[in-house]
Each structure stands twice: as C-alpha cells, then as structure tokens.
Write a structure and sequence with these properties.
Elements (H helix, E strand, L loop, with lengths): L6 E5 L3 H10 L3 E4 L15 H13 L3 E6 L8 H14 L3 E4 L2 H10 L5 E3 L8 H10 L3 E3 L6 H9 L7 E9 L10 H6 L17 E7 L5 E7 L2 E8 L2 E8 L8 E3 L4 H5 L5 E4 L6 H19 L7 H10 L4 E2 L1 H4 L17 E10 L4 E5 L11 E5 L8 E4 L5 E3 L2 E5 L9 E6 L1 H12 L5 E9 L5 E8 L5 E6 L6 E2 L7 H8 L7 E9 L4 E2 L2 H21 L5 H18 L14 E6 L2 H9 L4 E4 L3 E3 H5 L5 H17 L3 E5 L6 H17 L4 E3 L2 H10 L5 E3 L8 H7 L5 E3 L6 H13 L5 E8 L2 E5 L3 H4 L2 H4 L7 E6 L5 E7 L4 E4 L3 E3 L4 H4 L6 E5 L5 H19 L5 H15 L4 E2 L2 H4 L4
Parallel strand pairs: 1-2, 1-13, 2-3, 3-4, 4-5, 5-6, 6-7, 7-13, 12-14, 22-26, 28-29, 28-41, 29-31, 31-32, 32-33, 33-34, 34-35, 35-41, 40-42
Antiparallel strand pairs: 7-12, 8-9, 8-37, 10-11, 15-16, 15-21, 16-20, 17-18, 17-21, 19-20, 22-23, 23-24, 25-27, 30-38, 35-40, 36-39, 37-38, 38-39
Protein name: Peptidase U32 collagenase domain-containing protein
Pfam families: DUF3656, Peptidase_U32
Length: about 900
C-alpha cells in the first residue's frame, strides 16, 4: 500500500545549490532574486539566472518558489510590482511573502500566481490560517513554534484542501518567532525583516538578576551562573561534567528525520529544509537523505538509520532537536553551551605521545576517523580555545583506539569531534553532478510511402498533465539505391538521449522500408525533437498571451498609483494624542494621573519570575480590568485591552468568555499583533474597535489599505525612518484610506519574543524568590548592554532593547509626518515612571504645537529629564537612520 507523503522543499541559495537540490530529489526548491528576499547575504539569482533556474528545475519536474519575503517601503512598491510581473512571466510556481501589502499587490496584479504566506507572517493559530485561506493564499508556512498536534487541530478546523500547511523539517532555528525579531535592527540597523540579520542570538550573554528602583531600573544586580550537566564516558567510568551555559539564546538545529513516518501521516503538505546560506554539498546530503526516507515511507517500509543521522550531523549540526514541533521537553530545543557546528563525537583523548607528536583517541562511536577528516578538539575548560585540524594520514586503528599525528600537545579527557568528512563531500559531489531526472517520452515515428516523416510524442508536464507534441520536419527520406536504413538504426539513433533529461520509454516505428537517410540527419531530427519537447515543457508553466497582456495592462494602470514623488509630500500639522502601554494597575494609575489620553492595558505580559510561576487566571485578570476601567473613567482616559504578541488557538479559546465580560466591563477596544486574534475579537463582538500593534509590521500604505476593514488604528513599524513614515502617511491620506497612525516614541522596545522560557533555566532559587514582584531580570552582552526580560502567561520570553527609545525632542517633526498618536511603553516599569514620562510627553506635545524660539531649549530640557529616568540610556533608534537597505 502506497502512503501519501509530503512535498520535499529544498533551499537554493545559488545555481550550484539548486542543481544539488534537484539532483538530490527535491520536489520543489525555494530561492530569491537579487531584491526583496530574506537572505541578503546568499548568492541569490539575478533575473537571467532566475529564468535559467526555473528552466532547469521545470525541465526536471521540480517546482520553483521565489521568496519575496522582506518588508517593503512605499517608495519600493513600483519596483516590487514590476518584479512580481517578471516572476509571473518567468513561470515560477509560487511566491512566498511576508508583507501584507505585497500580497495585496500580487493578488491585484497577478491573481493566477500562487501565494504562500511566509513563516515571517507569524501565522500561529487557526483563525490566522482561515484568514490566509480567505485572502487567497494557497499555502501557509506555519510558525516553527507550533506543535504537530496544534497543526492537526488547525487542519480539522479548515475546509478540506482549502489551504496547504508547510513546516520546517531541518536546519537552523531562529530564537525568536520569525517576523518578530528586531534585535539585530535595534543594535546595528541590520534588519532580519530585510534579510540582513546579524545573528545576535548566537552571541554570549549572562543572566542578570536584581531589584528595581523607583523608575523600574535595575539595581543591586548579580550574575546567575547557568550550568549544564553532560554525561561523559571515560575509561569505562561515567562522569557528570558541569559546563557553563553562556549562549543563552542559541538554539539547536532542527532535524525531524527520525519522526518522518509520524509527520507523513499528519496534515502537513510540505517539509522545508532550511539552508540558503549553506553549501551545495550540505544541500545534496540533507535532501538526498530525506528523499530516500520519504520514498521508503511511501512504500510502507522505513526505519531511521543511524548512518543517515550521522551523515546529517556531518553535513552540519549544533546538536539536533525535534523542535517545538515534537519535543516534550522544550528545553531540549536550546544549545546554550556553544553556538557552532558540533560535528559527530568520536570520543575522548586518552594519551598524547610527546616524542611522536601523536594523539590517542578512544572511539566511542561507529564512525572511525579517516584521512581527510576535519576534526576539532574541545577543551573542558571553556576558557581555553578549541583546536581544529585535518587528518593528513590514515589513522592507526587498534581495537577501539585511533592514533594519528597532531600539531600541538593535548590533555587526556579532551573531547574529539569530526566536523568534516571528505568521503561524504565526495558523495555529495557525485549527487550534484549526477542528473538522474528522466522525462519519460512515448514516441511514434511515422515514415510515409513518399519518404516524409512525422514524429508524435507524449509526455507528462507540470502536475503530470499529459502533453502531445507533433513534429513534421522539412526533411524527407530518399529511396535507397544500395543499403536502406533499417528500423534498428532509426531506433538506435533516437534512443541516444545522453546529456539530456529525456528517456524514450516506448518507441513505435511505422516504416514501410526501402528508404535511406544519413545518420547525421536522423541525429539532427532527434535533437530538434528534444528541443521542441523542452520548449513545450518550459512554456507549459508560462501564462497565456492573453493573461500576460492583461497583467501588463494592470501594471500600467497600477504604477502611477504606486509612484509617490517624495518632493511633493506635504502634510498638515496634526494634533497628537498620547498613549501609554501599562501592564499593572500601578503603572496604569501613573499614566492616567500623568494626563495621557489613552492606555493600552496588557495584564497578560509582565514580571518574568511571577509569570513563570503562574498561568492565566481569568477571574483575577477580569478584576484587574474592572479596576482599570474604573480608574480610566475617573480620569477620562480611553482604555484599550492589549493582547500578548503571540496568541495560540488554545489561549484564545481560554479567553473567549473572559473577553465577553471584559467588553461589557467598558473597555474601548482591543490591540493585537495578530490577524488571527483580531478575527476572534470580531467574531465575539463585531463592533469592537481594533488597534494594530507593531508586530503586524506595517511598512507601506498597501498593508493599511488591505487591513483597514479590520483595524482602525495602525502602529507603524519602529524600523521605519521619519521620512518613510511621512511617505506612508501621505499615501494613506491622499488615497482616502480612513485609518490612524500611531508611533512608539519612548521605552525599551520589545526586540524578541520567544517560546523559550529563560527564567526557567535559572532554577528554583530564582523562581521561588519571595520578592519576585519587585525583581528585575535581564541578559547582558559582552559590551555590558543589559536587555530586560518580561514573560507572558504562556511562559514566552520577551526581550527588550537595552536602550530606551526617546523621541521627545522630535515632537515638532512628528506632528508634521501624519502621526495621530504617540506611545510610551511603560510596561515593566513603575507608577512614578509612567506618571513622570506621561507628564514630560504631554508637555513636549504642547511645545511641538507652538512656533517660537524657546521650543528647542524647552525640548532639550525635557530630553535631559528623560535621560535621568531612562533604563540603559536613550536612542533615536531607526527614526533618523532607518534600517540598512
């Protein structure tokens, strides 16, 4: 019995990697052009190369998905639209998008081009998937943090075949939910949302605990030493070795190979291998390993093989994990002791022969060291550097010991790993160069009594559609004078398919006999046939001429709408309101007494230690909201409930009855970062006023245009510069979009949200702290920058920027760039901070509305006040510089 298996989707960061993926057995590849792709530092494909890549893949029955998955600024929209049309013309099978505005344009311009929702859209609940299906997405790449049971539950709640579900199967894991990481952007302007992440999560950090002062800043801090137990075998004895965990945000690599049979029976449609920055050899090894496994599963006979697992490890690994998808112990997703390639463990050093400069290793694995292997010696003392080398001679193997020459002395107990295996690289090169894909052709050759020839061929095209091709050449055979051509000679010449992806499966020759033709003419005719078949196969994925004309006409109408001349932007000065994020009643009271206009109340995300010890208590949370409503009514302050950045289906279900009561209590609206959560809110109360938070990544007016029927207010991305915000606001106002824009102007902004629970690793001593309510937790980098940590009540870690954003002295400019509301993020701080900061910004808004010579001096005085109560100093963030292009 054949079992249905998911698609195997492989990375192609270069043409060589694409060939490796195709020849290793991928069903589809994903790649990027030179623009708009989220792997800026991969080789990628220019337009000519991209067409060649599509040609190569399609000719071998492999689909091509192009990533258009960065966030797009308004001035880039015309080029984006042209690029989408180019991709449509090139016959790509789908595009992956993150930006809702890009999806909006694609649907309008090239509706036949399949849309896949990138994992960077952070779709992680049932309602989010339903929204994607209704929008017109063919597939959703789900957040890596979802469990397999959650995915199957989503599938049960959507219409059969309504939308495909894709998951990551192998490769590097991001610490943060994809699309929600701004750490690299905040630190140095290299945005992960633009494919330029500097990978700060692979750097070392210390866990810091302390108390808070009256403004919520850390005092009396101490470092918490995090230790990991490693079981080591040496000389037939077992030791427990303690190693320091310094890489607190470093994840293991995902590898679901061992669980493939279980996943193949699930609702998952596609398995994605991560690795566009990896080598072609890596792609060849990983794809071929998964291909063999899936093919065996399809035949109903498969078991994981240790040799395959070792090959995957030797290709690259930071230790493997089943990820959040499969692991019961979610701490096993992390690899906090070191962030680099682990290779495969051989065993410990047992002896060093000083005279011969030879090391003796006890072999603890089935893998025996070979000549050409790259190995690394890892010291138990983490203060000493590791040592790597290549084995230049065949090691001497005796029983379970390997001996070979090294360049430096090594202590017994030093751990030895193979990180590169030459024989595996040779195997990978063979896979890359071995084009196994064969297009099966049924060929009928008709030779008439007058010598005329016609060729009738049948073969399968895209999605196995049967294609007929008839070729009638000008060439005619002549009556033979001496030696006529036989059927055997004709068949022999037409079966010469070497160097092509074709294979003549069945050939029927209808030949009366008695004719002659030079072999060179028969060969020429065969080549012409193959060229025509190739053209037919490639063109089968192209849109029709009518469809292309229609798309070009749409583009010509669309481009003038998208084109905004920056020098023509003029906006009226706005009267700005002030909002504050608060996560407890004390901060809410401070904000209200500071005369802010609106409070976004987030009782779901708060103190790291407290939330690690408790789950959502709807009764007590409802009491908090009732109190908050009372306070805001007394101070004439608008109250909006702010949901956590990530809201699982289970969490939203648990909130249902609670939210109905909260609406009745008198909250004025709900703020969320998730379209799925917004859909749930509207299902509960269709009249509720919804506010889009920064996690929705609003970068362009097309995103606002698409979502204006869901949200009334949009917080613009903190990655945009003031000029980019101004253009966004101008386009909204001049196109009649009835939406308000909000801007974060103060606070340690949220830079990461992760499913990992950092407080948990600190142990009971920290978690059972009686003074937890007043405690501070953060992580500190090697430059002594301290990043505060907060937790939501599903135990997700929220890491804030180490420096406070402060735009208080830019209020006059902000009033002229189309912003309706400015926001202070006071969560995790104190009542005094919320009160004083609200008061400062209220004053700044008043000053910004005036035009006199004192304004600059007064704003600088307010800025100095902000400096004195800030956590980690102040920065203008991306407001002036923007992110790197």
């Amino acid at each position: 019995m054949k079992i249905k298996i998911p698609e195997l989707l492989a990375p192609a960061g270069s043409m060589e990697s694409l060939k490796a993926a195709v020849n290793a057995g991928a069903d589809a590849v994903y790649l990027a052009g030179k623009q708009f792709g989220a792997r800026h530092y991969a080789a990628n494909f220019d337009n000519t190369d991209l067409k060649e890549a599509v040609h190569y893949a399609h000719l071998r029955g492999v689909k091509v998905y192009v990533t258009v998955n960065t966030l797009i600024k308004d001035h880039e929209l015309p080029d984006l639209a042209k690029y989408l049309l180019f991709l449509y013309e090139s016959g790509v099978d789908a595009i992956l998008v993150q930006d809702i505005g890009v999806a909006h344009i694609a649907k309008e311009l090239v509706p036949d081009l399949n849309l896949h929702a990138s994992t960077q859209m952070t779709i992680h609940n049932t309602e989010g998937v339903k929204w994607a299906a209704e929008f017109g997405f063919k597939r959703v790449v789900l957040a890596r943090e979802m469990k397999l049971a959650e995915i199957d539950e989503i599938n049960k709640n959507i219409e059969p075949r309504e939308i495909e579900l894709e998951i990551f199967a192998h490769g590097a894991l991001c610490y943060s939910y994809s699309g929600q990481c701004l750490l690299s952007s905040f630190i140095g302007g290299r945005s992960g949302n633009r494919g330029m992440c500097a990978q700060p999560c692979r750097k070392p950090y210390d866990l810091i605990l302390g108390k808070k002062d009256e403004y919520g800043r850390p005092i009396n801090t101490t470092k918490v030493e995090i230790m990991q137990s490693i079981i080591e075998h040496q000389k037939s004895k077992i030791f427990e070795v303690k190693t320091k965990e310094k890489y607190l945000l470093s994840t293991r690599d995902l590898a679901i190979y061992e669980y493939l049979d279980k996943i193949s029976k699930s609702s998952v449609s596609s398995l994605k291998i991560e690795g566009r920055m990896r080598s072609p050899e890596y792609v060849a090894v990983v794809v071929s390993t998964y291909r063999k496994a899936l093919d065996s599963i399809k035949k109903g006979r498969w078991k994981p093989r240790k040799r395959d697992i070792d090959d995957l490890k030797l290709a690259f690994n930071r230790d493997f994990t089943g990820g959040y998808l499969l692991e019961k112990d979610e701490s096993s997703v992390m690899s906090r002791d070191r962030p680099g390639n682990r290779g495969v463990y051989i065993g410990p050093v047992t002896d060093y022969k000083k005279k011969d400069k030879e090391v003796v290793i006890e072999i603890k694995n089935q893998i025996i060291p070979e000549k050409g292997d790259g190995i690394v010696f890892i010291n138990k003392d983490q203060n000493k550097n590791d040592y790597g080398m290549v084995i230049h001679e065949s090691p001497a193997i005796y029983k379970n010991k390997a001996t070979f020459t090294v360049q430096r002395p090594l202590k017994p107990g030093t751990l030895v790993y193979i990180t590169r295996r030459k024989s595996l690289l040779d195997k990978a090169q063979k896979i890359i160069s071995d084009d196994k894909h064969q297009i099966k052709i049924n060929l009928d050759i008709f030779i008439e009594n007058n010598g005329s020839i016609s060729l009738q061929s049948k073969f399968n095209g895209p999605d196995n559609a049967l294609i007929d091709l008839k070729l009638v050449p000008d060439f005619k055979m002549e009556a033979a004078v001496k030696k006529p051509v036989t059927e055997e000679i004709i068949e022999k010449q037409f079966r010469k398919t070497g160097g092509t992806p074709f294979d003549i499966k069945n050939m029927n020759i209808h030949y009366p006999g008695g004719f002659f033709a030079p072999v060179s003419e028969l060969n020429k005719l065969r080549r012409e046939l193959f060229e025509k078949i190739e053209e037919k196969l490639i063109s089968a994925s192209f849109p029709s001429k009518n469809k292309m004309k229609e798309a070009h006409d749409k583009l010509n109408k669309l481009l003038p709408q998208l084109d905004t001349k920056a020098n023509n932007i003029k906006l009226d000065k706005k009267s700005i309101s002030l909002a504050v994020y608060a996560d407890d009643l004390d901060i809410l009271k401070g904000a209200a007494s500071g005369k802010c206009d609106r409070i976004y109340f987030d009782p779901f995300t708060g103190n790291a230690v407290l939330n690690c010890n408790s789950n959502l208590n709807t009764a007590s949370t409802l009491n908090l909201i009732n109190e908050a409503v009372s306070i805001c009514k007394n101070t004439n302050t608008e109250l909006i409930l702010k949901l956590p950045k990530i809201t699982s289906s289970r969490y939203l279900t648990s909130l249902n009855s609670f939210l109905a009561k909260a609406f009745n209590a008198g909250i004025n609206g709900v703020m969320t970062d998730s379209i799925g959560a917004a859909e749930v809110m509207l299902n509960l109360n269709s009249q509720i006023n919804l506010f889009a938070s920064a996690g929705l990544n609003i970068w362009n007016y097309k995103s606002v245009e698409e979502l204006q029927n869901i949200f009334s207010n949009f917080t613009v991305s903190p990655e945009l510069s003031k000029d980019e915000i101004k253009m966004l606001a101008f386009n909204i106002q001049t196109r009649g979009i009835d939406s308000n824009l909000e801007l974060l102007v103060q606070g340690n902004l949220e830079s990461i949200v992760s499913k990992d629970c950092i407080p948990h690793i600190a142990g009971d001593k920290v978690l059972k702290n009686k003074n937890a309510e007043k405690s501070f937790m953060g992580i500190e980098d090697t430059k002594n920058h301290l990043f505060p940590i907060r937790l939501d009540n599903e135990c997700r870690t929220h890491i804030l920027n180490s420096v406070e954003l402060c735009l208080v002295d830019y209020m006059p400019q902000i009033s002229k760039i189309g912003i309706d509301t400015v926001i202070i993020d006071a969560r995790g701080r104190t009542q005094k901070y919320a009160h004083d900061m609200s008061h400062i910004y209220k004053k700044a808004i008043e000053i910004g509305a005036k035009k006199d010579q004192k304004s600059k001096r007064e704003l600088n005085a307010l800025k100095n006040k902000v400096k004195k109560i800030s956590l980690g100093g102040i920065t203008t963030g991306n407001f002036l510089r923007g992110v790197h292009s």
